[in-house]
Amino acid sequence: VNRAPRDRQDRFRSYSRVVRTAPLTWHAPTSEDDVVAAVRAATRLKVVGAGHSFSTIAEPEQHAMTLDGLTGVLHLDADARLVTVRAGTRLRDLSAALLAQGWTLPVVGSIQAQSVAGAIATGTHGSSLVHGNLATLVHALRLVDGRGEVVELGPDDPRLVGARVHLGALGVVTQATLRVEPAFRLRQEVEHVPVTEVDVAAVARTAEYVKVWWLPGASRAQVVRYTRTDEPATRRPSTRTLRWVDDNLMHRGLFHGLVALGHRRPGWAHGINDRLSASYLGPRLQVAQSSLILNTPMPLRHRETEAALPLDQAQRAYDRVVALVRDERLAADFPLEVRFVRGDDGWLSPAYGGDTCQIGAYATDGPHRARYFAGFWEAMAGLDARPHWGKELHQQGAEIAPLYPAYRDFLALRDALDPERVFDNAFLRQVLGGSEPSASAAR
Known about the structure:
Radius of gyration: 21 Å
Structural class: alpha+beta
Mean pLDDT: 90
Shape: globular
Distance between the termini: 39 Å
Number of strands: 21
Number of helices: 14
Helix content: 25-40%
Strand order of the largest sheet: 17-14-16-15-19-20-18-21
Largest sheet: 8 strands, antiparallel
Low-confidence stretches: 4-8
């Protein structure tokens, strides 16, 4: 199905509205053959998923493709603990389908609105030093490369380790085979800790899943731990009821009003955050299925930037951002989120080479947002910080290349799979260099 944009429904707008564009045509394939035909006919084509990247990674320049017609579970192999799923499937739908058969992904991100292909493309992650990011779950991939050829990357294919975090630069992913495990429940506990007493590296190892939230300016941070349990799911109120309250009363009601007040009176932001942190953010004991309790409610529209750091640099980064907010009295209305990811060998994975702390600065577009994000990256200077591919970033390829030992290997893989740069866009030119094939291809 190909169509020229006719109205606002045919425009692509990212969740944060950082990207707003009207492609020349939309492709909506319902089969892999449709994908092949579209790629062979295109000179420049960009696949867009759920639009939940805060960067411009999925911004189409000419033609756009949605994989919303390529969804659903193809096969669940219980003996091998593997599920094969079409690439356009939303994570929430995959989680529901797996749970119905007693299975789950070992780790999920904060939001499950993303497509499978989009989530692995950017290194989307949860928070656990036991588990890697979602891309590490990839056992095999099937994609259509820039020539319109179907490529299968199995577990023994040396290219798979480079294609897991693919940035949308290698082809149109049509299927992914992911590792799964039997469904399990988690017990959530929230501890309030004075913000200057958070020992980041120590906290990281206190539970299988653990994260730190700090509402900027609040006197205390929240350490949220999740441990496996055989206890029954929480009732009265249940986790689903609390989630409905969060979605409909807190985020669309009270929190929306507090954000508007903070925009008008930024000097009040720290006081608002301190009170909100002490009341709304816990302590609450909950027990629920892992794929539900590890998610957060769909928040207000906002913007995000995030750095991945070696674990031994995490404390310095955290302390610098806390000092930035306090010294400059910056108003920010979303938590500073500190999460942890087990190291892996994905060529462009932000956790390449070792266990990682990923610190995210989030805010609505209030009067201090630009300074907060700029100051955040100033605080990361000298700490070997890698930007999250799906969050706002300013770094150019020359800055990024030294952070990734396998960066040139990825460029060579891109040259092999998309020599004519069918899947190129401004974001890829920014982080990978120009549209011309790399020197490795020329040789």
